[in-house]
């Protein structure tokens, strides 16, 4: 439907343009500093000329970003896959069963959003130590799955409650069991919320610093954020190398985000309907 261009529309466009500029300034500063010589004394928004790519080479070699990116990718992919599978399977009966235990179990999962993660640091660390997982990627994966499930189950459950049961009932009448109906009918229908769950958890896990630092300390394993932190010391902080490392590590997650962005708002909005 055609809408007239009014003064209100102009004001909204100006506000959006200004907001875009404000959000773009940190990104410009990030890339700009990464292209400056290490000993450059100019400000973050003073454009580097001539630009240099030496910082990227040094950041890659000194921080061993190659191995760190592989570890980050393994942790992120395995964690997100487990979160999607477990959360979707848990949300299906919570959304379809109307008994009291289903409602209270759903509230129990939601309680995981309220409890501060810091309260569980000591018992979780001692548990991982007792089962000899400190220093392994499995420890970080377990923690990520546990912390990512409550919100993911919330999104899946509320989305499924708004999803008609017609296709499932038809599949059950044709002889499909509940598991087959879920895999073949229900899970493809929740693709928008699955994309939202993937991207939200992936961004958080990829950028996670404290958990890998705590559980991988003293081992040969490290992740990209922890590797970049190696350029920070008590007396010297090499900002061009840090920013170059940040640019390198942000590129993979940006590619994934732009690939899934059409599902993010759709799935998030659908998940909040319930």
TrEMBL record:
Regions that span the bilayer: 14-35, 68-92, 104-125, 131-156, 197-218, 238-260
SUPFAM superfamilies hit by this protein: MetI-like
Top-rank lineage group of the source organism: Bacteria
Keyword annotations of the record: Cell membrane, Membrane, Transmembrane, Transmembrane helix, Transport
InterPro entries for the chain: MetI-like, MetI-like_sf
Membrane topology recorded in Swiss-Prot or TrEMBL: Multi-pass membrane protein
Cellular location(s): Cell membrane
Chief site of localization: membrane
Domain ABC transmembrane type-1: 69-260
Pfam family, one: BPD_transp_1
UniProt family annotation: Belongs to the binding-protein-dependent transport system permease family.
Name of the protein in question: Carbohydrate ABC transporter permease
Organism of this sequence: Microbacterium yannicii
Upper lineage: Bacteria, Bacillati, Actinomycetota, Actinomycetes, Micrococcales
